[in-house]
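G.,

No rush on this.
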Amino acid sequence: MTNVYELDGRKLSALPEAHDYLKDMLGFPDYYGKNLDALFDLLTEVSRETIIWVTHYEMMHPKLERTFTDAMGENPHLTVMALDEDEAEDYGTEEYR
């Protein structure tokens, strides 16, 4: 089974707020440190196929984009991709909003 999540890049543009949003949307544990190192650690520990679609990808903070890219390089089970609103409906990810 594949975990599929949809994130809104507009909510990932400012780091302090982005970490709260990521914790809620990705179901991170209470011990999540809400910083880029902690995000990287949790993303690289994913052991089940996981796809994270990001709408408004261009709005994401560059450091978050880099962390996602680095985590994908370390974890073959993780895929993070840009997705426009029309594609979200085509892929049926609206149920994950």
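When you get to it, here's the other one too:
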Amino acid sequence: MTDTPNALPPCAGCGKCCHLLVELTAGVDHVPEELVVEHAGVRCMDQEGDGACVALDRATQLCTIYERRPQVCRDFQRGSSLCHRAVLGRRGTLAAA
């Protein structure tokens, strides 16, 4: 595997996209309330101390609420610029999880 921005590995569940802050949309996102936190009046998915979404299963790197995951997670596209930044980091090399 190379470390260039154009050489993303196939999505195999690295979970790095699950370390992004996810803002919830009222009337659209219906996730379990125990997974929600409020930041300055904005409802978001809660995160662990390392920034991982609380719905991420650490063993499988899969979403535990996949069928009820937020719309922003549904819309996330592998290979998008946000994916590149999450996976490759600022310098274009694989970022640490």
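The radius of gyration is 14 Å. Confidence is low (pLDDT under 50) at residues 92-97.

Enjoy the weekend,
O.
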